[in-house]
Structure formats: C-alpha cells, structure tokens
Write a structure and sequence with these properties.
mainly beta, about 5% helix, 2 helices, six-stranded antiparallel β-sheet
Length: about 230
C-alpha cells in the first residue's frame, strides 16, 4: 500500500482499459459541492492566506508555480496569518477534502496528482500532506508527506515550482467509500504549495502496471500544461 508507481512505458499489451473514478482540476470553485475546505476560501481573507484558487491567490509572488492545467489550481501559503480564523496551527492545519467515491466494486485503484511547491519551504515547519479517508469511519491514512523542501516520505519525489504528476497505488486500502484529502501549513506569503488535476482510476492488471508502468496519455488522462 502507498507504493508509488513509475510513469513509464505503458500497460501490458491487450489489457482492458482503465476506469476513471474521479477527476478534479479545480478550474471552477467546488467548495461545498465537490470538496470541502476548512475555514472558508481565500477570497474573503485576501491574498495568500488560505487554500484558494490560483486566480485569487497569486499576489505577485516571486516564486510562482507553473505547468498547471487550465486556469486554476488549489494553493496554500501564509497559512499562519493572523487574519485566519482562530484554532488553526501547524498541529491542526487547513485541509481540503474531496467528496466520497464508492470504490467497493473496484480492486486496483491508482491515484495521480499534479503537485508543486516553492523552493524555500522550511523543513520542520512547512508541509504538504496527502491522505486517504475511509468515508465510513473517518479514519485517515497518510499517502505522502512533503516536509518543507524534503522529498516525499512515501514517494521520494522532490517538488519544484513546475507541477509534476505523482502516482500512488491505493489497492491495499480496503475502503468501500474513499475521500482524498490534503493538509498544508506554510509560514510566509512566499512559501506556497499547489495541488492540481487529481485523477483516481481503476486499472485492470496490477501486475502489469507494476512492471510496465502507467501511461496516462494512452488512457485519456493526460495533463495539459499551462504556465502562469
């Protein structure tokens, strides 16, 4: 569980097609509809003080994120700002959680997420955490943890200012109903993390996937890149 799959050659020839279970590209505001966000959106708080659509949250940063799909992505920076609602801290960070997906009839779920982060995140104080939620019990399973500028604890991937796809094997979770979520904490306006183009799919043959990798473009899940 939680092993990261190399995006390389493609599925084994002759395999059945993959099934799309969930997609989210954040190009329209889905708070309260497709996902929930703690503490409300960034628009009511001004620039860069909460999880917020990129178009609301750019603020003239010197270390901007590029390579995202469409016009927006979800981002977080300056999350300890004094204007935020009280009660949030490094130990109780802001989060965004996607709505529940019924995966009870599927066995080989794969999660692909485009991630990016500024290069000046502080180890031990700034982080991005990705987790899976059992929607029936609310139990969270951490899929990856990016502590400051460190590589992901599960993926080994180092994030940069250009969005890159990171892939997780969820086949061992055993959930009937799944929610995907993110927690973030950063301590200044110039420290930012970004999440875009989430894809949850079910693949037919995990053995061939592990050997040959997953070619998203061939399955119709390719990501178009657009710079700021």
């Amino acid at each position: 569980m939680n092993k990261v799959i190399c995006l390389c050659i493609g599925l084994f020839a002759g395999s059945a097609s993959a099934t799309s279970l969930l997609t989210e590209n954040f190009n329209t505001d889905g708070d309260g509809t497709r996902y929930t966000v703690t503490g409300g959106g960034g628009a009511g708080l001004g620039c860069c003080q909460n999880w917020s659509l990129n178009s609301e949250d750019e603020g003239g940063r010197s270390d901007v994120l590029v390579g995202f799909e469409g016009g927006d992505f979800w981002s977080g920076s300056d999350l300890n700002d004094g204007d935020l609602p009280s009660g949030f801290s490094n130990a109780n960070p802001r989060d965004v959680i996607l709505n529940s997906v019924d995966i009870s009839s599927f066995n080989n779920e794969v999660l692909v997420i485009a991630l990016a982060a500024s290069t000046n995140l502080d180890v031990g104080s700034d982080f991005l955490r990705i987790f899976a939620v059992d929607a029936d019990t609310s139990v969270r399973t951490v899929l990856d943890m990016f502590d400051g500028s460190n590589a992901g604890s599960m993926s080994g991937v180092t994030l940069g200012t250009t969005f890159q796809d990171v892939t997780y094997d969820l086949s061992g979770l055993g959930f009937a109903n799944l929610r995907i979520g993110f927690e973030a904490w950063t301590t200044s306006n110039s420290e930012v993390v970004g999440v875009d183009n989430i894809r949850l799919i079910d693949v037919p043959e995990p053995a061939s996937l592990a050997i040959f990798g997953l070619t998203l473009a061939g399955l119709g899940f390719s990501r178009k890149k657009k710079a700021l």
